[in-house]
Amino acid sequence: DGDGMIGNIYDMGLALQALEATGEFYAPRVWDCAQAFSVVYSHDYRQPMAIAQVLPALVGRSYLDAAGLDCAASIPPCPSPLPAAPITVHYSIINKLQGRHFSYVTSVQVPGGSTLLKVLQAAEKEKPDIFSFQTEQTSWGPMVVSIHGLAANPEDRTYWQFLSGGDALQEGVGTYKPQDGEHIQAVFSTY
């Protein structure tokens, strides 16, 4: 589209690889390489799968070439991180879809820069009878499959959707970092 995005931010790595490989077949080119790369450069990729897909395009090489790069030689050592000030995150779990309906809300404190997964863990630690949850590990990071004993089910086409300000989160619980005062909702939903 007009801002250089191809699909969503996680599609960009494979899209750039494909366009780079087939670019010679476009005359004139119908895509703006620089604009697409600027989208990738401005995003803070954290998931290993997304990084693996975008890395070859960034270094202008294939997956096999990228595997031989000596990245460690050019990366300075990380400074010791300063302790982050705590933030407060409001967290709700809502089920108005199936079985016994429920709606619970809590506020937890976590260090600034914490992922949403840390928020869920803090809520579970404070009130395990209400905010218990389970995750499954995927190639894109942990995915929440059950909250308060209510499990997502592909046969019912149900899942736990995470929202902030009414908008669905574009990142998973393992990478999304809530801001101080943010209200995160986990809503049992259908697709």
From TrEMBL:
InterPro entries: Cbl-bd_prot (IPR002157), Cobalamin_Transport (IPR051588), Transcobalamin-like_C (IPR027954). Signal peptide: none annotated. Cyanocob(III)alamin binds at N8, Q53, L169, Y191. Gene3D superfamilies: 1.50.10.20, 2.170.130.30. GO terms for biological process: cobalamin transport; cobalt ion transport. The keyword Signal applies. It holds the Pfam family Cobalamin_bind. It is found in: Secreted. GO terms for cellular component: extracellular space. Coiled coil: none annotated. Its main location: secreted. It comes from the Eukaryota. GO terms for molecular function: cobalamin binding. Residues 113-185 form the Transcobalamin-like C-terminal domain. Keywords: Cobalt, Cobalt transport, Ion transport, Secreted, Signal, Transport. Belongs to the eukaryotic cobalamin transport proteins family. This is IF factor. The gene is Gif.
